[in-house]
């Protein structure tokens, strides 16, 4: 079959319609924040396309579905692999009042049937994933692949609708609860006492860790310690296949991966394999559990935290007049779900959907590579869906490799320069002021967070905010990329730019955590509290200032990090 | 053993929860004993004793006059003064005197000393009502000897008609004359240090901290705020302790008619008046009480100088901490919880009344 070798015309933009254009976009808003939590390091074009389109759509949908009185979601742009956002605040008092009236009706389910609502969404998404997985991309026709692409896009859009509807709702409650605790009890979310009111909930991510611990126990009983002892999946899997016991164990392991292994190493990017493709990270966790004969004590810790939570809540309710106890209890009941929602939604929503995007895009990529449209399946990460739509029906007639090469070169250049944290004409303080006026709960909790307070008297090397209270000392272990998580040793202080659910397992044995960016509902803070280890968030330059091997002290309660000695 | 068949005297351990006619303070002490908390041993001269006295003392005419005077402050204080004088001048019924004397024999046996002294405190019914902090509205007599006991009881009764107490009742709309009072008589501890404890932080409202304030000697200097006491903050969760040395320039000791203040030498001022173990023991007792009562408590306590630890840590009085409300976010009775949360959300999180700032 003949193939055109002529290159397709190279597009000027990456995410058509949403590439940042200064002249146009500064007219819309004078401030655009870099989403440093998700888009550092810079995204591939394919992932950037999905995020920019549908995270944006989800936020606007969520704000509208709840009729948040003062905000209508965020607008997003893509610039050199970075996601940039601005908040769309409502300022007309008459409109705020109209939205308040609708809010009163729209928000009710959050208070009256939180659990039913969230489990309904989880089941809906699991249904979508099962449908996507039922298509085998290698057996599908070109047009079935195109249909799978459209379905994946639709599922991503729906995921973000659920994601932001839930997140706006949960954070709205959480912030109100935080305000009232400040007023009533004199404690805020940098206080250990505040977190005791909300900690001690199980969630899906812990459940996966518990299953891996059980698998480690099985491996010990089956005498598979040596087979699991070293190397990556490429070495370990054949060693296990060699024995009956090993095959029996692998059966259980694969069953777990098939259900829960649809997670990406980096939460907001698709260019690294899922656990299903490369189970090395899961095997590393199993190996870690195998090395320690101690019981999986997370359950005991959780029970202890849950008991403390119930006591703390009773103490708070006892301080109120009887007629205030019911509503305050209801409010607290939803607020306490914020931590587990924050952790669990990553599993059911972002991670799983992004794993599905990777599966679909690579499936199309293999077809295109076989037809010579591109060289490798992974080249699709440098394309965007419109380009796949154009070529997948008749791939032999197209050649996208020149475009891939140009985009790849561009992407590589993004990796070597830093995206500015703020674009526009406002100072950082002025821009943050805009967010505060919008009262957007996600902006306040995720983008702004609490800014570290520098206290010269304590002379700390880094200042952040409390993610989880307590003090610990240990050897710093700077981990920039999830594939290096195997380097973390028991008792280490984990230092990261940001963490995500696939990092959860190391929280079981590190003694403290330092994170560059984030706030009290970020992954590291939520998980740190459940494991009762100190976590300092929002130190900005932890991964730059700290080096692996240094002895450090982490004071989670006050948000201080001290370098005690070199190596 | 029962103190008396007449019901005019009761030992504190015979006052389980729900015992009527003994006033708030005695009821609190009885409940504490039932919980296994330590309080100085003693008995209650019950409201029945006052009622019997009132019936045979010729008080009624004055009381009727007082009851009729609602609102007239000038006359009220004159009539109240007459009532007090009358009470203090009228002998107690012989039966009651006899019962008190027998109770003193028992107290002597319990203390193991002949020359014991007691603390005599009034225990009124209106006192300690949650939300109406009536504390300190009646009198307390410390270091009372056996011979002075009857007189002290009579003065406690008279304190029911102190100018302050009558004015307070008038202001609160409580009955002026038709009230009763019990009197608690307890062995006077030899107080090395004393003070107050809150099972929550009364300043910030933090329910996860126990606050203890202490000074050498009797607790009066702490209650009255005449010195800056030592301050101890115990976290209920991890039992961490923060200590803050006070400026304990003076201490209260037993003196004629109650207590007197003495100056403390500098070395005593520089020393914490409680050991960490005593602080933790107090906090433990405080939490026990809070769990039992289901709400924060305000406790008066003392550390006895003669008893060994931990028996020396004794509780004198316990009452609810007057609860702080949610201010403007308070929910009216009968309103649906969801509706209220939605109102608070709109009002507090999204502007509402605060919209002017935007």
Protein model, in words:
The complex is a heterodimer of chains A (567) and B (358). With 567 residues, chain A is an alpha+beta fold. Among the domains of chain A are: 17-105 and 421-448, no CATH class; 192-201 and 298-335, no CATH class; 204-291, no CATH class; 449-565, Phosphohistidine domain (Glucose Oxidase, domain 1). Chain A has 20 helices and twelve strands. Chain A has helices at residues 22-28, 45-65, 93-106, 108-112, 114-133, 142-185, 192-196, 204-221, 233-241, 244-260, 280-291, 298-318, 322-335, 337-371, 385-391, 401-415, 428-438, 441-448, 523-530, 542-545, and strands spanning 31-34, 71-79, 82-89, 422-424, 462-463, 465-468, 471-478, 493-496, 512-515, 535-537, 551-555, 560-565. Chain A has an eight-stranded mixed β-sheet with strand order 5-12-11-7-8-9-10-6. A four-stranded antiparallel β-sheet of chain A has the order 2-3-1-4. In chain A, helix 2 (45-65) packs across helix 6 (142-185), helix 6 runs antiparallel to helix 13 (322-335) and helix 8 (204-221) packs antiparallel against helix 10. The radius of gyration of chain A is 24 Å and the shape is globular. Mean pLDDT of chain A is 89; it is low at 1-12. Chain B has 358 residues and is of the alpha+beta class. Chain B folds into two domains: 9-187, ATP-grasp fold, A domain (Dna Ligase, domain 1, 2-Layer Sandwich); 191-320, 2-Layer Sandwich (D-amino Acid Aminotransferase, Chain A, domain 1), CATH 3.30.470. Chain B is 35% helix and 22% strand. Chain B has helices at 23-35, 47-56, 60-67, 73-89, 94-111, 149-159, 163-172, 220-223, 266-269, 276-293, 337-349, and strands spanning 9-11, 42-45, 118-124, 140-144, 181-187, 191-198, 209-216, 230-235, 241-244, 250-255, 258-263, 297-304, 313-320. In chain B, the strands form three sheets. Chain B has a six-stranded antiparallel β-sheet. The longest helix of chain B has 18 residues, at 94-111. Chain B is globular. In chain B, 45% of the residues are buried. Classes of the chains: A alpha+beta (567), B alpha+beta (358). The A-B interface holds A 68-70, 91, 93, 96, 100, 103-104, 107-108, 111-112, 172-173, 175-176, 179-180, 183-187, 192-193, 196, 308, 312, 314-316, 318-321, 323-324, 326-328, 330-331, 437, 439, 441 and B 200-201, 203-209, 236-237, 290, 294-296, 323-327, 329-335, 337-338, 340-342, 344-346, 348-352, 355, 357-358.
